[in-house]
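Cont'd.
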Amino acid sequence: MAASIVVDSVSKQFTLRHAKTLKRMTTQLIRREPLKGSFHALDDVSFSVQPGESIGLMGHNGSGKSTLLKLISGVMRPDSGSVRVAGRIAGLIGVGAGFHPDMTGRQNIYLNGAIIGMSEAEINAKLDAMVDFADVGKFLDSEVRHYSSGMYMRLGFAVAVHADSDVFLVDEGLAVGDAPFKRKCIRKIKDLHEEGRTMFFVSHSTGQVKQLCDRAVVLQEGRMVLDSTPEEAETYLHQVEGEDDDVPGDDDI
Amino acid sequence: MSVAESTPGSRHGLELRDPGGGGGLLDVFRHRYLLKLLVRKEVKVRYQGTVLGMAWSYAKPLMRFFVYFVVIGQVLGLVRSIPNFAVHIVSGMVCVQLFNEVFQSTTNSVVRNKALVRKIFLPRELFPVASVFVSLVNIIPFLVVLLLASIATGWTPEWQTLPALVLGITLVAMFGMSLGLFFSGFNVYFRDFGKVVDVVTTLTPWSVPMIYAFDMIAEQLKGHSVLLELYLANPVAISGMLVQRAFWIPTVEGEPIKDPSVLELAPDLFWRGLILLAASVVILAVAQRVFKRLEGSFAEQL
């Protein structure tokens, strides 16, 4: 069976340019300061995900999880190796990034829906479901800047979870909102999985991964160190944390 | 675009693709609906929170017009040699305004939308293209003012009017977009490029025959054909004259004029317009390739 996500010996190095203007660049050249620094965010990572699988990507801060997610969503490109995805991608990434504060909730639903790749017909068809999910009540037709942060996120989530997709990405997203809304999200995400979508979670909450995934991949300093069950990933991460406790503050970021 | 229906079976057997790949400018037209919403948003929110709304965007050009008309026209006396000087100025100003706006807004378009660029994958060309459309919408009231002023001074349409207007506006928008697309990519790496654009745009009004007649330049550069050709290689100057051909010429033809040579526009005006339009399309194609190369690391640079 053809895979749904293929990550093939992917490496990504970040160049940190210290100069944002030509003037600073010139002064740094004159002072012989380095113009760039770099570090490896991902180092030769390979794995593939089958259609309908639910996989959790785990690791500590700075392990390269978010970078890998950005490569899969297409926002970034790998330096070497390749990332390929089958079908349409949607997910809880950059939720609300396309919102404009001066537009109403309804207008923002349309704009954000189109940003994540929905057609006008698709948005029309799902408008009621999205409005229902967002549960912003009478604020739907008032400007988003009057929203509470909870309402803002709910509206973003509502649009994101209703887009048709084959691959659904979740970026530590479930940490927002109050308990009932979190439950609603998790229920919805389980529904999406049951529909047969490939699910890809990025999380350092082992509880969540255990609850939602049947497989876990662990990254450490950009390298893949484990590809197994969520339970084993939890054990592994606990061990690493244990080592960290011996040397406080070291290696954390 | 593959729209997956909700039956699980259809999800399998999909082709693996590079999620960040895209067809460049052509992709923009596959996202027409989003383009429409982005343009509408920009137009709508631009002057929200101000009492006079859109009117503010025309306060500056109106001020400029009066300065030109009073200082250059009355004080320096050009109003006596250029008939219907006001329409002569406004015809040129339409092109200058459009070029500057397109150039500035496309150059800043990627940086301005960095929240989206960093988080969600979209064909990034959408942002420059949306800026061009927003500028085109903003120029409409200018054209209305120009039309009314021309009618008030005896304008009647000729067969050249529409082709001249369409060619002029298309040329200046296309040229502005091709430069803007080029600059918008570099501006992500070095914000200096935005500043370069600010400087260039202050020159635009002087590079177009609007506060002086083209004939005066032709007279000055007599015997310096290279310099004259250089002047005429500027698409903004040519489109300014095309718009003058559409609106100003019909209001002054057949009037008793002291020195009729001020009515002369660039020779082979339409041909020059078409050639420069073709050149702009070539620049656009090159800019697109450069943009595509730079785009790969926009997300990490912003």
